[in-house]
Design brief:
The chain is built from four helices and seven strands; from the N terminus they run ββαββαβββαα. The protein is α+β, with helices and mostly antiparallel strands. The chain folds into two domains: 64 residues, no CATH class; 48 residues, no CATH class.
């Protein structure tokens, strides 16, 4: 878990860096700081001073959410769709569709978004 800047060896890991790595984050907020606008299910926050039991409860809840939501499917660019350590072969058009849908994983994707992805990915002749 991470606060505003948590040390990892000689580097400081920022919440956005951990988000980019797909890691859950517990933000530690100073007593007089504004509450963070958290919309990611892999992120939570707690204001100082905080009881150990409260911090542990937030960490446990965050870990449970992260385990439930897991990673998003990824396309590899060589005809594979990869998810949770498994992969399946996909055709070119399926890869384009899968890429578009995985970019919005867990969200409703409208027809225009899918059509735009197919149009942009289709070779012109």
């Amino acid at each position: 878990m991470v606060g505003p800047g948590t040390s990892s060896g000689s580097r400081t890991l920022r919440p956005q860096r951990l988000a980019d790595l797909g890691r859950p984050r517990l933000l530690i907020v100073a007593p007089d700081a504004a509450a963070p606008a958290t919309v990611d299910c892999d992120e939570d926050w707690i204001r100082l001073p905080a009881e150990d039991a409260d911090v542990r409860a937030r960490i446990a809840a965050l870990a449970a959410r992260a385990a439930r939501h897991g990673l998003t499917p990824k396309t590899t660019g060589d005809g594979r769709l990869v998810f949770r350590g498994r992969w399946v072969n996909v055709s070119g058009i399926e890869e384009i569709l899968a890429r578009s849908l995985s970019e919005h994983f867990g969200e409703l994707v409208d027809d225009r978004t899918v059509e735009a992805a197919v149009s942009a990915g289709r070779p012109t002749t």
